[in-house]
Amino acid sequence: MELFLAGRRVLVTGAGKGIGRGTVQALHATGARVVAVSRTQADLDSLVREVTSPSPQLCRLLGTEPLPFLEVTKEAFDRSFEVNLRAVIQVSQIVARGLIARGVPGAIVNVSSQCSQRAVTNHSVYCSTKGALDMLTKVMALELGPHKIRVNAVNPTVVMTSMGQATWSDPHKAKTMLNRIPLGKFAEVEHVVNAILFLLSDRSGMTTGSTLPVEGGFWAC
What we know:
By secondary structure, this protein is of the alpha/beta class. The chain contains 7 helices and 6 strands; from the N terminus they run βαβαβαβαβαααβ. The chain is globular and about 50 Å long.
């Protein structure tokens, strides 16, 4: 299905690795003009060698890690909300203001998680940030809709990025999660990227405020 993204200007955050990197590569293949934002210069440099079109930008944000509820610290809480919510708000404000000032329509796709609507052990803060991100997506859609800006989220299960493979390499740990997924498998990067590109394209022109599950039926259980 042709998505007609050629010539569109797209900002991709988290572009150095995983879903973000895959999104940049897929957008480049469609002919879109991509601005890639990453935490590390090395990732940007390697991305530029692979894909000639991105305009690289460096943005330093700390990663987050899962913690049991009783071990959550103020620092871990602040770090997770900084990355998963506050950064989304700040970047989206910049993008939306620019679109409104130019009087042009646009689309924003937030990367949420299956954890936004289901509890997962040792992910109390992470689940909370993603739940907040889902609601932020809906409020953004409500307020930005009159400006012809659509806002949606994708909610993937575990994705087999390099980090996902390392985190879920233990068969027992993986089985615990896979047992909750009717399709019995984790997502590949391309599964999430395809959903993102669809939501960016005019093919989803009447879709806004949605949370699109890419989780193999996890929410059905």
